[in-house]
Design goal:
Elements (H helix, E strand, L loop, with lengths): L12 H12 L10 H10 L4 H6 L4 H11 L7 E4 H8 L6 H7 L3 E7 L8 H16 L5 E7 L7 H6 L3 H7 L2 H9 L11
Parallel strand pairs: 1-2, 2-3
């Protein structure tokens, strides 16, 4: 977590939390975690403002905090196929730590679309899963879940358009209104 957006694309932390709360408000027992904020605050407690501004908190940092605070919990990381491919190929900071901190327990969601055919990305995904299962065959439990009901929505699409009919298909009404009210993403004044 930083005051600056990750690669200039993410909304501020508090906005992301509030949008998650809007999405989850009607889901029984759903809780929006602020573990990222807590981890950032713990990591920056002794730093000055300049040092705080340059500190990056990543998934491994958050998992380290969670596993330290809850040593009897077996955490599982759930992520989409594209994100898993990036993680497995080492594009994330501390890739190996992320796998180890969740005991290689991951659920990888892949959306099945109409006319979906086996393609190159499927081969990369299967290879990535196999690579990490081979590293620690006794602990690995990376599961691929293919879901036909997921849309082809992407955060890049949401951030990159002001086309409201498109956004109404991808977002809840409350989240779309939140984004518009706060002039986020393509609704930002500088983007028009």
């Amino acid at each position: 977590m930083s005051t600056k957006s990750k690669r200039g694309k993410q909304a501020p932390f508090q906005s992301r939390v509030e949008m998650c709360q809007l999405i989850c408000k009607d889901i029984p027992k759903a809780v929006v975690s602020e573990a990222e904020r807590i981890c950032f605050e713990e990591a920056t407690a002794e730093l000055n403002d300049n040092e705080k501004g340059s500190l990056r908190i990543g998934t491994a940092d958050i998992l380290m905090m969670l596993t330290t605070n809850e040593p009897n919990v077996d955490f599982t990381l759930a992520l989409g196929a594209d994100t898993f491919i990036d993680l497995a190929s080492g594009k994330w900071r501390r890739t190996e730590d992320v796998f180890q901190l969740v005991g290689y327990r991951m659920i990888v969601f892949r959306r099945l679309l109409e006319n979906d055919e086996h393609n190159e990305k499927d081969e990369i995904l299967q290879g990535s899963i196999a690579k990490w299962q081979l590293i620690n065959a006794t602990k690995s439990s990376i599961r691929l879940v293919q879901i036909p009901s997921l849309t082809n929505a992407s955060s890049s699409t949401v951030r990159g358009t002001t086309n409201e009919p498109v956004l109404e298909e991808l977002l809840t009404k409350e989240v779309l209104e939140y984004i518009k009210r706060r002039s986020m993403y393509s609704f930002a004044k500088s983007a028009t």
